[in-house]
Amino acid sequence: MCQGEYGTFLPVDTPDPLEHAHHLKTQLKSYGDSKCYCMAIATLEDARSLKSLADRLKALEVDISKIHLDGALTFLKGASLLEDCIIQGERPRDTNNVFHHYRDAARLFRSLFDLAMSIV
Question: Which InterPro entries is this protein grouped with (predicted)?
Answer without folding.
Answer: THD_CWZF3/5/7
